[in-house]
Amino acid sequence: MDFLQPLLLVFVIFLASCYFVHQRKIVGTKNLPPGSLGWPLLGETHQFLFNKVENFVGQRMKKYSSKVFKTNILGEPTVVFSGPDGNKLICTGEPKLVRFSYTESQRSLFDIPLPSNDSSVPPKNLKLGPAGAARLMGFLKPDSLVRYTGEIESITNHHFRTHWEGKEEVKAYQLTKTFVLTLSCHFFLGLNKPDCIAKLVSKFDDLHFGIHSLHLNIPGTTYNRASKAAAAIRKEVRIIMQEKIAAMSKGAAMTDLLSQMIVAEQGGKFEPHFGVCNTIVGLMSASYKSVVNALTFMIKHIGEKQDVYQKILFEQTELAASRGTSMELDWENLQKMKYTWAVAMETMRITPPTPGAFRQATTSFNYGGYTIPKGWKIFWAFNATNKSPEYFPEPEKFDPSRFEGNGPAPYTFVPFGGGPRTCPGKEYTRFLILIFIHNLVRKLKWEVLFPNEEISGIFMPIPAKGLPIRLQPL
Prior knowledge:
With 474 residues, the chain is an alpha+beta fold. Helix content is 51%, strand content 10%. The protein has a domain at 4-127 and 356-380: Uridine Diphospho-n-acetylenolpyruvylglucosamine Reductase, domain 2 (2-Layer Sandwich).
């Protein structure tokens, strides 16, 4: 039992550190938003993580304020913003009032350095993050993505032939994970090995579970599993980098993002670079689970609602007939998939891929009549308006027509953020979803086997049984 003593000591030191940081930030602050900081040291972290974030936020909005309240989660005093006004402030207030923030676990898993105290000056050792790197290469711009629609369709068709066609029943959640990561590996890494990709799926799952977990690197904890998964993913990416460097040194031409980043970061020299590895892993992580969840629950809603299925099938069949069998999908084709995209948006409203994001106050400012102290964490609950009858009548009803015409009022639905932090992967997500559904509905009809399947998951929704569906070829 002696081995428990050092583990207990580490845990005590961790709690003590959180306590002193917590106290330093609170003492002397006046006119804070209403709310509770919970238990000493632990705050309300347990309720936040294990009572579903949507319920945690909703209960406190009713009790304290529909706009802003204070709490203490993941070891830090935190202000929760919700509602259109809160969404607008976050979308338009960066970097003057707020800046992007990471959880301690997220920072550690992706080797993200601490920011400077001066929010206008980035740390000297901070390389471009995943979004910045992709923007630099122009990889995620619509005009760049259009050039890859043929490849995306080819990979999509191969995915259906391999995993869907000829099957009576499948678990859609697992297959959407395989599909999304297959595309990420192809375009970001130039990797097209199914066995390797299958292993990476479980690693990325473990990594995502740890991003919003307590930062306790003790065997058996969620964070510990995530840390091991992150190390395994980085190891695989470094091996791929070495192979690419060797090939490009001999004159091989490569178009995947990792190859472009190796050359760009090294000024044309083919050398391994730790920053490139971290950036590509971060980019793949960001493009993984949110797209997977959007596709999974879109399959669920379409399968349960025959009128929605028929409307999508009609739209996609007409589009396929107009472009001919020999023509690839192009930007104009995707723009015509208006109803299909409305279904995607309604899916993300009903079942958001993620419940919110973290920011940090760069200066003390007033909001809603309260003081938001400099340095405090902000949890941006941007989905709090999704099921408000004030903005979405009959909020539990699945109704894609909400997103036809002018759509919802400004800042009432912001699944991709806004302002300087608009998700750079928005168009990539759109391309993948539309091309996947375009092919799925023209190949298969399906029945959801467990319409009342439990939705589990702490920070992201997960169908408990994996969304089993029965397939019928058209």
